């Protein structure tokens, strides 16, 4: 019988301090997450220096919690996977330095993980039998990517955002309407009570065959709408703005993803990243995919947003592919997939 491989994942790229322990890539023994959202809320977004400091204060406790919950000791860990980019440099450095120190102390391999790859891998944890190839839409606060997953660790990137990421658009619109941070879940909630056909916001499809995204035009259209309402002293129905804006984002995400699945002849679409927990996106993707007999996968909400279980899973596949890092590994804030 093969020996189990126990991977520790460490994630500090933005405003979540998280440590997970995962067995054989997909079985989560613990996934401890400490979110800093409440700390950043009053600033309307993540303050990088505050984030780094909070990671430093928190990470020791998270490690203790994780080992206790998994009922393991440091020496039971076979390898340590850590996010080294993309993300906020100071925040990344906290997790990376911590992972290096642990790897050195227990003499176990260090594995650098690309955060975006981690988001994709959240689907492997959710669906134990999911195997490549498949099409994946990654939509988070910092990234919007359309990717064909050829094999573990083998990606063909077909689309990226040319300006704002999908989650960023949600956050900016929420801020403009003074609704709070992060905007995604707030707008998602309001949209359920609004009319998505109330306002005809633009959908940007770019060139005919393009799989890239652009949300800045939509963002400006919503801001213009809000300004003109204010100037005319007219009431804004926030539920309708939320629903119409969300539908405009989701229409483009769904159309392009289904088109790519058809081009690649893929019968599986996975979605990942914070925006993958959006109910409008999940519902429309399932509805449209059904017409093409395509199966839609998405991780549970806790695995959509930043967490270390997805990093451990990605690290496990890197490890199996012989991709290790050494102690010279540095943080790469703009790391590409
Ligand atoms: O993946 P994530 O935790 O962090 C990044 O890697 O960026 O994603 C956070 C983003 C935020 O922009 C947040 O507003 C968005 O995901 N988000 C949502 C929802 N939940 C989180 N966007 C739309 N609908 C949601 N339900
Ligand atoms: Zn993320």
Q: Helix and strand succession? A: EEEHHEHEHEEEHHHHEHEHH
The gyration radius over C-alpha positions equals 20 Å
Ions and ligands:
5'-O-[(R)-(carboxyoxy)(hydroxy)phosphoryl]adenosine, zinc ion
Output the number of helix runs. 11
Q: Which whole number gives the mean pLDDT?
A: 96
Tally of structural domains: 2
Q: First CA to last CA: what distance?
A: 35 Å
Which CATH class of the largest domain applies here?
Answer: Alpha Beta
Strand order of the largest sheet: 3-2-1-4-5
Which percent band covers the strand fraction?
Answer: 15-25%
The CATH superfamily label of the largest domain reads ATPase, nucleotide binding domain
Low-pLDDT parts are none
Question: In this structure, how is the largest beta sheet organized?
Answer: 5 strands, mixed
Helix content class: 40-55%
CATH fold node name of the largest domain: Nucleotidyltransferase, domain 5
Number of strands: 10
Structural class: alpha/beta
CATH architecture of the largest domain: 2-Layer Sandwich
Oligomer: single chain
The coarse silhouette is globular
